[in-house]
Design goal:
This protein is α/β, with parallel strands linked by helices and 258 residues long. It is built from seven helices and ten strands. 38% of the residues lie in helices and 24% in strands. Strands 3-2-1-4-5 form a five-stranded mixed sheet, with helices on both faces. A five-stranded mixed sheet has the order 8-7-6-9-10. It comes from Actinokineospora spheciospongiae.
């Protein structure tokens, strides 16, 4: 079985794969101070009875401090297993058609590979995390670039910290767009405002893709831990794949075992 590890700024996601199937997945909070031994102990606890059945590991990290500890953990606790850490020099099969390919995060590369594998057409991937990453993929599987926006939680935290009369609220759909109290006004502005931002960006991106000759259907895919908060309020998202990054890691691992 393959273990995949996706270290993001807010959460670490683990996946356990049997061939093409994602059997189980877990999430834990990212702590930049975590040590290799703590990570190994936590992971073994999550895997439980499956811990001894792991035959390979694929990992990526957008947090440099945790990436260092992931390396140490794999070298100390999984030394005998084949492993792949997504970084420059690792075969991904994803052409990066941007000004500086070294700037492209490993999570964006994994998402690109998985999106093209599953949909086989031009894609827009929206990864709802600490930041919201919007990645654009050609029908040939090329990474074309994208856009970043502050994530939902960052927006809520910033508003609560900078406005004395406002506070953090639960992100659920209010009774109506026109809020009748402070909580509903905040919920409406965040939920529907964020959905409108996503729809506006996707509309501009898809129009630009078609203007540059991408005439195929364009899949718009949501992923990331915060996606369920807003996807039902959008009109442009056509698919929800919460396992997209983990599946991308699996595909990269397979490419590097040939």
């Amino acid at each position: 079985m393959l273990l995949t590890i996706d270290v993001g700024n807010t959460n670490i996601a683990f996946g356990l794969h049997n061939a093409d199937d994602l059997l189980r997945d877990w999430r834990m909070r990212t702590d930049a101070r975590i040590t290799a031994d703590e990570l190994a102990l936590t992971m073994r606890g999550l895997l439980g009875e499956h811990a001894e059945r792991v035959t390979g590991v694929a990992a990526l990290s957008t947090v440099p401090a945790v990436l260092r500890e992931v390396r140490a953990m794999l070298g100390r606790h999984y030394r005998s297993l084949p492993r792949v850490i997504v970084e420059p020099g690792v075969r991904t099969g994803v052409p990066l058609l941007v000004d500086n390919p070294k700037e492209v995060g490993s999570d964006r590369i994994a998402n690109t590979l998985a999106a093209h594998h599953y949909f086989g057409t031009a894609c827009v991937v929206i990864d709802f995390g600490t930041s919201t990453n919007i990645d654009v993929i050609s029908a040939k599987g090329q990474f074309l670039g994208g856009a970043f926006t502050p994530g939902i939680e960052i927006s809520v935290d910033a508003l609560a910290s900078r406005a004395a009369a406002l506070r953090k609220v639960e992100m659920v759909r209010p009774r109506s767009v026109i809020g009748k109290n402070t909580v509903e006004c905040l919920q409406s502005g965040i939920m529907y405002g964020y959905a409108g931002q996503i729809d506006g960006l996707v509309a501009r991106i898809t129009r630009e893709l078609r203007d540059t000759g991408h005439t195929d259907d364009i899949a718009v895919i949501a992923t990331g831990g915060l996606a369920p908060i807003v996807i039902d309020e959008t009109t442009t998202i056509t698919h929800h794949r919460p396992d997209l990054t983990l599946q991308g890691l699996r595909l990269i691992y397979e490419r590097n075992q040939r």
